[in-house]
Recover the amino acids of this structure.
């Protein structure tokens, strides 16, 4: 997966969790949860959405790696 | 039209999911109804065959209006007008009864001479009005006796005897309300008053007139704005009523959640992310279990008395992205495992946001929990949802210095708060309740 594809995927998953949220407004290193006003259930739903649409099994210990835009992109592009 | 929450006055049938001739089963979703707050999936409450859809799609009708006619399959029930029922006859039915709304009771064959009376409130009303329940023909689902039946019986008897009805049978109205009703073409006799002693006041007339008017909307944007304004009005009206009627008292305690957090960490270690448990789930479960030990927090205050609820249906305040908050119920929380509760909660949050809640979820919470902690505040003192009697709030988890056994350490903590109804309980019981939550969270493995 390329960076662009990763961002595209994040956008489409996020659209289901928080339709009005705009990924473009979030800085690369900013906490997604805080920047987009996601509660912990929203954020979990977002991560689960990433796992389900890519087929990547995300173990719980990797949860923290997905807290930012750059974290998500790095995780998605390096996973198979 | 079921009352989907204590603050609902009217609803619009957005879509029918059944048609005449269809077989329906208890629990089937038969229609989508739009309220000020959300779109709700309305469940039917009996088995039978749909005869007629009375209210067409797109029409807005007041709570209590007949939506459809269904012939019940049970051999002894008579076909007749029934409101499309909303939900199991849990304590919520009692609450709606208290608000003068039609009660929905289980369809059951009428056996013997004894009237089917679901609601203790109806019984109490009958007692007060001197009505013999066994002599009353019920018009509710399954021929159960409703509040309206009792009032009718009392009124009929009063006419025969020439004595006035003690109360409630025919609402009084103010001169202004009568004049307004004349101007707006509203039938006063068909109204339920919200004023003192059930009298019809200006607001009731205006609401009835508004409900009767077909909706005119020019653009989608206008509809969204209308809906937002309507939602704020609905929340405002309910909260104002709560503050007016309920003598709130407030308590708070700081809970050390390190045991819960480390238990969660271990529990999540081997799980895929799809099965991850979150701290709020443990807080919800602890609150539900604490309620079982301090029952004064769980139930409804109706008709001047507290009606405790055996079951714990936890209303969970969920913020809606477009603004506003809705508190659908998770049923029988104390009987759910943490994993089950997690699945329910995720499902509920998703559906609440998508506007796909079910009628049974929206109308019968026995206590509400709000968890604003996720959004960064330390504590929240909520306003009780009438006719409930308590609201539990959890703030955000944060590390703080913690002194224990003469030692100072750093612990993750959550501030738990309670807003409770002084007509039902005192601070000492409320304090006991919060302490119980604390104790339960110290043994997370047993939750």
């Amino acid at each position: 997966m390329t960076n662009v594809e990763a961002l595209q995927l994040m956008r489409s998953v996020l659209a289901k969790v928080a339709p009005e949220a705009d990924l473009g407004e979030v800085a690369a290193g900013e906490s997604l949860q805080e920047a987009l006003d996601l509660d912990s259930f929203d954020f979990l739903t977002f991560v689960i959405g990433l796992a389900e649409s890519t087929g990547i099994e995300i173990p719980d210990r990797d949860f923290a790696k997905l807290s930012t835009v750059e974290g998500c992109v790095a995780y998605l592009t390096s996973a198979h | 039209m079921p009352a989907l929450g204590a603050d609902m006055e009217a609803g619009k049938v957005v879509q029918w999911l059944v048609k005449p001739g269809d077989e329906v089963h208890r629990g089937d979703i038969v229609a989508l109804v739009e309220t000020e707050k959300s779109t709700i999936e309305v469940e039917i409450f009996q088995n039978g065959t749909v005869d007629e859809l009375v209210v067409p799609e797109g029409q807005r009708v007041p709570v209590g209006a007949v939506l459809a006619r269904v012939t019940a399959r049970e051999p002894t029930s008579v076909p007749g007008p029934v409101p499309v029922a909303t939900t199991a006859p849990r304590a919520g039915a009692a609450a709606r009864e208290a608000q003068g709304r039609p009660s929905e009771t289980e369809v059951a064959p009428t056996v013997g001479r004894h009237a089917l009376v679901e609601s203790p409130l109806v019984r109490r009303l009958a007692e007060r009005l001197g009505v013999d329940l066994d002599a009353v023909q019920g018009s509710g689902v399954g021929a159960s006796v409703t509040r309206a039946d009792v009032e009718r019986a009392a009124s009929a008897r009063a006419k025969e005897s020439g004595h006035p009805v003690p109360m409630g049978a025919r609402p009084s109205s103010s001169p202004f309300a009568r004049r307004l009703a004349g101007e707006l073409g509203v039938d006063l006799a068909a109204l339920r008053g919200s004023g003192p002693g059930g009298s019809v006041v200006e607001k009731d007339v205006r609401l009835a007139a508004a409900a009767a008017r077909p909706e005119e909307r020019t653009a989608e944007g206008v509809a969204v704005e209308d809906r937002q304004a309507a939602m704020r009005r609905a929340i405002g009206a309910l909260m104002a009523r709560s503050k007016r009627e309920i003598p709130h008292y407030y308590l708070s305690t700081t809970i050390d959640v390190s045991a819960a957090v480390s238990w969660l960490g271990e529990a999540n270690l081997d799980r895929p992310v799809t099965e991850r448990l979150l701290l709020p789930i443990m807080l919800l479960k602890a609150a539900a279990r604490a309620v079982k030990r301090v029952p004064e927090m769980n139930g409804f205050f109706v008709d001047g008395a507290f009606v405790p609820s055996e079951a714990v249906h936890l209303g969970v305040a969920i913020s809606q992205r477009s603004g506003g908050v809705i508190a659908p119920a998770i049923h029988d929380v104390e009987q759910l495992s943490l994993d089950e509760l997690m699945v329910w909660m995720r499902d509920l949050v998703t559906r609440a946001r998508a506007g796909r809640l079910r009628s049974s979820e929206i109308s019968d919470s026995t206590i509400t929990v709000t968890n604003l902690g996720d959004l960064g505040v330390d504590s929240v003192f909520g306003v009780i949802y009438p006719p409930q009697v308590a609201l539990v709030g959890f703030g955000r988890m944060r590390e703080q210095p913690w002194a224990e056994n003469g030692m100072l350490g750093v612990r993750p903590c959550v501030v738990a708060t309670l807003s409770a109804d002084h007509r039902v309980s005192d601070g000492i019981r409320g304090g006991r309740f919060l302490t119980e939550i604390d104790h339960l969270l110290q043994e997370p493995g047993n939750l």
User: Anything to note?
Assistant: Helices of chain A lie at 3-17, 32-35, 40-54, 69-78. The CA atoms of residues 10 and 50 of chain A lie 7 Å apart.
